[in-house]
Specification:
seven-stranded antiparallel beta sheet, two-stranded antiparallel sheet, 268 residues, alpha+beta, single chain, disordered C terminus
């Protein structure tokens, strides 16, 4: 079906409509062979609170953004290559049901659907796209993933020292390695993690010790391995939620996935 839709006018129109909704703030999405397979609104667990986000599934990428005016204007576009994605089904919580995690090396986050059936459809289509894409590229499934950030409201105290209480004065911070909510004293260190950012990132004290130990071990190991060629030295190799997203509010009356149109009919 993807091959059938790849070069059709209706597919081009659908992709152009998505580009138009993101406007100049979004990246161009139309490339040869790319097909828009489906779209829908999912609830994304963000740092401060869960928020609705529009998601577009293509045969090679997953695109999502903030909803300004549904079907008309979106912002804060994020593009995730599907060959970097791993999915994990999660149990329900009191606040959110039908949850699963989208994991990549740069960012991992939790989303939820309005029903169990919709979650199954999303996961099924995502897994099929990922399987086909990996088979075409010959790449193995990804094994390294960023830790999801634990929401601010999940704890009132630092998750490392378990003593510091958060308040309007005492800020919450997130360790970029484990995703824990920590206080300033427990996260004074910075560490360079190239897969996440070209700049050193905030990490908690425990993760910093572990990362430094791994770095020292890797350096010692590289010294023990002789270079195969004399004189040759081997060469070395967001996204927290934006403030703009925090300003985008939604009402409890917002209905998700209210259309009676089945996912499969989107292709017709």
């Amino acid at each position: 079906m993807v091959d059938h839709l790849a070069n059709t006018e209706i597919n081009s129109q659908r992709i152009a409509a998505v580009e138009s909704c993101f406007g100049t703030s979004g990246q161009p999405l139309a490339v040869p062979g790319r097909v828009l397979l489906g779209e829908g609104i999912l609830t994304k667990e963000c740092r401060k609170k869960a928020k609705p986000r529009i998601f577009f599934l293509f045969n090679d990428i997953l695109v999502y953004g903030s909803i300004v005016i549904n079907k008309r204007k979106y912002s804060s576009q994020h593009i995730i290559p599907l060959d970097e994605v791993t999915l994990e089904t999660l149990p329900d919580t009191l606040q959110m049901k039908n949850r699963w995690m989208i994991k990549t090396a740069k960012k991992s986050f939790v989303v939820s659907a309005a029903s169990l059936t919709e979650r199954k459809e999303w996961i099924s289509h995502l897994e099929e796209c990922i399987r086909i894409l990996l088979s075409k590229t010959g790449r193995p499934p990804p094994t390294e993933h960023a830790a999801p950030w634990i929401p601010d409201k999940a704890t009132d105290i630092c998750m490392r020292c378990t003593q510091t209480k958060f308040s309007a004065i005492t800020r919450r911070h997130h360790c970029r390695k484990c995703g824990f909510v920590v206080c300033g004293d427990c996260s004074r260190q910075r560490f360079l993690m190239p897969r996440l950012s070209p700049k050193p990132l905030r990490v908690c004290n425990l993760c910093y010790k572990q990362l430094m130990a791994e770095k020292q071990e890797a350096e010692e190991q590289s010294k023990r391995v002789p270079s195969p060629v004399s004189g040759y030295e081997p060469s070395s190799g967001d996204d927290s939620d934006r403030s703009e997203e925090d300003r985008l509010e939604w009402s409890p009356e917002t209905e998700f996935y209210t259309s009676d149109v089945a996912w499969s009919s989107f292709h017709s």
